[in-house]
Amino acid sequence: EIINLDERVNILLNILSGQALTIYPKKNDPKQKWYSGFDNKAFVAQDTMVLKMHKLYLSALSKGIATGDYSDADEYLNIISQYQNQLGADIIPAQKKIDIEIAYNKWNVFKKLMFYYMILGFILLILAFIDLFNPNKKIIKIVLSISIFLVIAGMVIHVAGMAARWYITGHEPWSNGYEAVVFVAFITTLAGLLFSKNRSKFIIASTTLFASFLLAIAHGSMMSPEMTNLVPVLKSYWLMIHVAVITASYGFLGLGALLGFVVLFLFIIRTPKNASKLNETIKELTYVNESTLIVGLFMLSIGTFLGGVWANESWGRYWSWDPKEVWALISMMVYTFILHVRLVPGLQSRFTFNFLSMISIITLIMTFFGVNYYLSGMHSYAKGDPVPIPTWIYWFAVFIVVFSIVSYKRYLDYKKKR
Predict the structure, then answer these.
(1) Is the distance from CB of 116 to CB of 154 less than 8 angstroms?
(2) From its phi and psi, is residue 316 left (phi > 0), alpha (psi between -120 and 50) or beta?
(3) Residue 222 Cα distances to 89, 161, 177, angstroms
């Protein structure tokens, strides 16, 4: 926090002193660096007009603030703009890109989508339960279909936001923590649509809510939506391939955790009266859960192997036991075990499979967040400032433990009654 405060104070001082207003390109500068109008040492004799122009512009600007007449300031500003285009046209962004960036920042797409997904997710979840116990109501089915259409519309906006960010930055929109979480939110919702069926409204409802939760994390204090240049090691075509594949796998595996949670909840509310309806839903969601974990594991494995190829190109070796690599391997092993649980005597139950698929997301959280924030290694270019673990995480962990115990007890009670 002291470092962040020091950075902000220095930025403020640079603004007040005018040093932050680096709007003047220097003639024949090999690095194409731009300078402030107060930087006397930067300009040679023939460029002293820059310093004079800057003072004249500030004087005219002060006059405009006092009188409301900015005509003189605008005239000087046009001269400065001509000077910029004359000497720095090679690095000045196209006007279209500038307009899109201004619009992107003004619209704040992903923060608005957070609330959009949250409202739709709750509506879909409520309607899914109503549809589960009253499957013949036509109005519910119509409203569900409309809600799903609205989710698809939100995803189109989601894609447009990522595309705009890609165009503005010039690189893939999954190069840092904020962008990766936004990308995972999209993939999770996409996975929900791909695996949802006519009677599986719980899937799209859960994924939509989870997408809103991920976007809330992206806009929390731990992450910055700032668009920055890539560090040298990320300036590679492997960013599109490796990072996209391995990050997308989190969306499918996250869907598995959500479905596991939903099935455990259905175990809790299952009674002899509604068992015939819930058993079919539990069976169906478990099959879908297994399918999405298979897709996620394949993508996670392929992404990890592709990361090894990239590591060999960048660092000269395929594997270095870096914390990020180790935790990616741990995640692969955990999910491989879960998908083979059905072959292990004594563990062949829907409760065991869904319970393991729910808690196994801990390994992904450690791989994505824990390694980035609390461990150091060759992937430290993606590291953020370590932050205290939020208190709500401990409470959520307690909730999951209690929730799982209650679900297991209800599962055993039902088996005994049968």
Answers:
(1) yes
(2) left
(3) 37, 21, 9
Burial degree of 418 (CB within 10 A; 0-12, 13-18, 19+):
exposed
Q: In whole angstroms, what is the distance from residue 298 CA to residue 332 CA?
A: 9
Enumerate residues 6+ apart whose C-beta is below 8 A from 83.
24, 25, 50, 53
Q: Name the range with the highest mean pLDDT among 102-116, 194-208, 381-395.
A: 102-116
DSSP per residue over 224-289, as a string? -----PPPGGG-STHIIIIIHHHHHHHHHHHHHHHHHHHHHHHHHH--TTTHHHHHHHHHHHHHHH
Task: Report how far apart, in Å, the C-alpha atoms of 230 and of each of 20, 184, 219, 382, 395 are.
Answer: 22, 20, 21, 10, 37
- So what's the pLDDT on residue 386? 57
Do 43 and 35 meet the contact criterion of CB atoms below 8 Å apart? Answer: yes
**Are residues 188 and 211 in contact, defined by beta-carbon separation less than 8 angstroms?**
yes
Least confident of 29-43, 278-292, 342-356: 29-43
**Residue 266 CB contacts under 8 Å (≥ 6 apart), including other chains:** 278, 281, 282, 285
Which helix (H) or strand (E) is 35 found in, with range? strand 34-36
pLDDT of 91 over the 90 cut: no
Long-range (24+ apart) CB contacts under 8 A made by 271-276 are 272/417, 274/133, 275/414
| Per-residue pLDDT, 46 | 55
Reported as a single tens digit per residue, the pLDDT across 138-192 is: 776 787 788 888 999 999 999 999 999 999 998 888 888 889 899 999 999 999 8
Number of neighbours of residue 226 by Cβ within 10 angstroms = 7
The CA distance from 307 to 318, in Å, is: 8
The pLDDT value recorded for residue 238 is 80
Contact status, residue 159 vs residue 173, Cβ threshold 8 Å:
no
Q: What CA–CA distance (Å, rounded) separates 388 from 222?
A: 10
The two structure tokens encoding residue 400: 């999951």
Say what angle helices 201-218 and 244-269 make with each other, to 10 degrees: 120
Helix or strand or coil: residue 211?
A: helix
Tokens representing residue 328 in the block: 């990616």
- DSSP letters spanning 168-209: HHSS-S-SSHHHHHHHHHHHHHHHHHHH--TT-HHHHHHHHH
What whole-number distance in Å separates Cα of residue 215 and Cα of residue 115?
A: 9
Among candidate residues 365, 377, 367, 368, the one with its CA nearest the CA of residue 319: 377
